[in-house]
Every structure is written in C-alpha cells, then in structure tokens.
C-alpha cells in the first residue's frame, strides 16, 4: 500500500509490509495504556493529598446538600 511505510519507534512486527499496525500490536498498546492508567489511579488514591482532597470534596457536597434541604424546607418545598 505505502511505498515507504512510516518509521516507527515500535519494535519490528508492529506494522505489516503495507504500513498498517497489526491487531496484536494495537491490542498490546491498548493494554499498556490501560495498565498505566490503572496504576496511576491506584497511586493517586493512595497519596495523602488525594485522600484529603477527596474527603474535603465529600464534606462540601454534604454541606451543600444539607443547605439545599434547609432552603427547600424554609420555602415549603421539602419532600
């Protein structure tokens, strides 16, 4: 298909002779990216700063919900 397939930083075998990525190559890259994202998420949730931010966000959400309930009650809209 291509006269000169694009140069790839990936190892040999990732592209066919026509310059198209193989299914195995695409699957491997997706799995690598997914694993990296999962690992980063695990690290983020383990950091004290992340825990603190999450707890603060939860407290703000609860305070907001409580305040909204008070306003609805004062207006006679409580359910």
UniProtKB/TrEMBL annotation:
Bias-annotated ranges (Basic and acidic residues): 48-65
Segments of this protein annotated with the region Disordered: 33-79
Domain of life from the UniProt record: Bacteria
Protein name, as recorded: PspA domain-containing protein
Organism: Epidermidibacterium keratini
Lineage summary: Bacteria, Bacillati, Actinomycetota, Actinomycetes, Sporichthyales
């Amino acid at each position: 298909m291509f006269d000169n397939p694009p140069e790839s930083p990936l190892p040999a075998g990732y592209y066919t002779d026509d310059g198209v990525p193989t299914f195995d190559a695409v699957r491997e890259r997706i799995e690598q990216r997914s694993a990296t994202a999962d690992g980063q998420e695990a690290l983020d949730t383990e950091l004290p700063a992340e825990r603190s931010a999450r707890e603060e966000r939860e407290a703000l959400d609860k305070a907001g919900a409580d305040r909204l309930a008070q306003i609805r009650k004062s207006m006679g809209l409580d359910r």
